[in-house]
Amino acid sequence: MSTLIRPTDTLTRDALTVLQPGFVGTSAPDWLLRRIGEGLASVGLFGRNIASPAQLAALTAQLRAERDDVLVAIDEEGGDVTRLEVRSGSSFPGNHALGAVDDTALTRDVAAELGRRLAACGVNLNWAPSADVNSNPDNPVIGVRSFGADPLLVARHTAAYVEGLQSAGVAACTKHFPGHGDTAVDSHHDVPRIGVDPEVLRARDLAPFRAAIAAGTRAVMSAHILVPSLDPEYPATLSHRILTGVLREELGYDGLIVTDGMEMQAISATYGIERGSALAIAAGADAICVGGGLADDETVLRLRDALVGAVHRGELSEERLADAAARVRALAHWTSVSGVADRSGGAPDTEIGLVAARRALTVTRGNSYDAALTEAPYVAAFTPMANIAVGDETPWGVAAELERLLPGTETGSFTGPDAGALALAEAGERRVVAVVRDAHRHVWMAEALNTLLASRPDTVVVEMGVPQSHPQGSLHIATHGAARVCGLAAAEVITGR
């Protein structure tokens, strides 16, 4: 490790530069503006920061008044994970729906329109797309956030998404390296482990990242997962073997490496965010994402001082921190040169999300199917616990769209072992539309659906998760995601519109 040779204020500025913090509120607090003036180069936005496109544009303008090349990042995957439309549901289907259509031109167009909307609001870094190969159907955190289980399909759509997003001047951040698809644990809660041979990992999980790098992705996000065949000690975010050895040296990637949220339990409950941040930068990461749960000045100062302290103690080389800060500034320069104006070369396509959602539907009509619904039904939503990445703020289902098309539609949400019987009791004589999400992962949900269908075989079933279970009901619709437009597309089929 090198000794400290530069002025302390330069070292402190570099430590601030590599942080990507969040904050609370719909306008920038004074402490955040002050830190930007001191060298902070990135800010992360979440649903709590967004009320409307106009408000968001005003917020990003406020940030740029302090620093014109500040990176404004957001977790806007579309589909189930949306921050722009956190209270209404997304106007874009997510990755799994796009993978089900398997039209890379469509994926590129959807990502370009999403990028155009972000750019119009002043957002220039998107923590998307998810390049995870959903090889484990029991995965609790990826699921419909993945394009699918086929590595080649995921690779071509990841590349198309990167190209589309960046055509609008918004940097893509391909995630979660080296692949979060083969996990049965959510890294928000614990450290997932992927126990496959390096050959399997390279052929399956790394293929989409190779494609993203070839497509020019400006950033890659690391995963807090343990891959013993690559590094038996450290999770990927903290692993020099994985971030530097595999991503930099083997795959030849030279862009920005961003960590997943450091306050996630996989890091905070094992290493702590201060030590974890220093280890991540030493391993090869360039930017520390924090702010989903910890979103205050104290957190920024703790991490800044932890990085400076790690340099003084010889645990983190000054050159590595300077290199990380330089990569952050390089991306900030790219976005400022690209601009936040629309660069997609065409008029806005406000319907592209709905077009994609309609194409993504898989519709199966059973023996008891007679005709489209013309009278208001009862919608029974069998609701699993939302994972943290998706959150529980965003509405999902088909009830709102059916109510618009068939006034008088009523709905109820059910969970647990008595869900089926309770739904039957509430529905009465009305036709039932049962809405499920990953029914294959929830025993209670599958049993509730069986109870409902045993008494009411004319039930319409809408699966809004990964469609692993056999189609059931008089009409079965797999939407491949729970975005608002997916619900609208399903409602159109149910009502014959």
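(the above was protein one; protein two follows)
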Amino acid sequence: MKRALLSVFDKTGLVALAQGLIARDFELVSTGGTKRALEAAGLPVTGVETVTGFPEMLDGRVKTLHPKIHAGILAKREVASHMAALAAHDITPIEVVVVNLYPFAATIAKPDTTRAEAIEQIDIGGPSALRAAAKNADAVWAVVDPADYAQVLTGIDEDDSALRARLAAKVFQTTAAYDAQIAAYLDPEPFPATFTSTFTKQQSLRYGENSHQDAAFYVSPDAPAESLAHAQQLHGKALSFNNIRDADATLAMVNEYQQPTVVAVKHMNPCGIGQSATIEEAWDKAYAADPMSIFGGIIALNRPVDLATAEKMHKLFLEIIMAPSFDDDAYAVLAKKKNLRLLTVTLAPAQTKPRVETVAVLGGVLRQTTDTAIETAADLTVVTQTQPTTEQIDAMLFAQQVVKHVKSNAIVIAKQGQTLGIGAGQMNRIGSVEIALKQAQQNANFAGAVMASDAFFPMDDCVEYAAQHDIKAIIQPGGSIRDQDSIAMADKYGIAMVTTGVRHFRH
């Protein structure tokens, strides 16, 4: 009779698998709760302590860590000395190892979990048995995922060595991810000497940025609730690579605002942001900010979508609409467009602490804390003779909060609660100023607009151009060796200028 070792935390599909193994003339060896579950199903099962001649001990910390288990797994069947050693020590070879691991990630996700509780969810025997089986995959089935049980039974029947090899690789992927989660928990230092991360494929994508590129979407086991990884798609086509990038950028923006806000994004840059007393009015402002660029845009709202707002959005071609929820009648209107993607998302609480973000480069990654800085009136230093009005300060602070989400060099023209023009990603700052102002001056709401810059002005040409195009107040970080030139230019034209001391580059 052949032997199979079953020791699982997740009992999904266990009984059916065990029945299938018994039907294929396997003796079942098991531990603790797994053994009890099999006995409760009326299946014959041998306790691991009977095989090892040694009881489970240390509150279950030691169960399968024994030569009679590991030698039975690791013996190379084609090596005569290995098989002779098994016979000499009365060890039966183990042909199938079915193990899944203690739920470490789920345990530490609970806010009240103590360190001692987390430590007890670090599986030792499970990974050891799985790694041994995966190492010897030429002869042993290493099974870590209940989703694979059905194909394992078929594979046993067909002696499918290719499947055994794939399952072995899956074991090492699983244990590597498991160890990475434990290491991150034990050492929360964001920049350790060795950085190991783990992700699970959530979906294959039709293609990447372009149709000739392959792609997939992977998510982190500790992805925050307000991330796209936890969004629920209610309607429309599957998200594309570019949809996911844009939607992620849009969520990062809308998560910063507390009052009713609508964010419209194209190619990871905002093309319109509106704030008001109601979400419908916020939509009106976001749309009016740039009615051309919003075509095909990604929209995020930080309030439930009501019917009035839905009817206005329905008139446009939009790729994605994200919100905490959709009123039933609003959803009915928007769902008439079969390809429009509708997603519900969780929004972050106010004043979210900085996280660490990772960006891939060829041969490595860059890691940094996220830019969560939001300037207030107390952070502003007036550097010009002209003092800004209260209304201008409010508008500048709004523009400053937007500019950090725009690709550098970044310029935002705005009034309180509405962007009017955005210049993004230009190789020189004056180019961004020109683009932003050209767009803004087409807006009927332009009079009294202010300008924000993500970094200092290296010379006074940006200030002069803004002054010549009716900008009356400017917010910028300051810090250039030629700051005084820009300040003098602002004074020449009677512009109020404030500095923040905080740069907001976004590359």
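Reviewer note on protein two: The radius of gyration is 30 Å.
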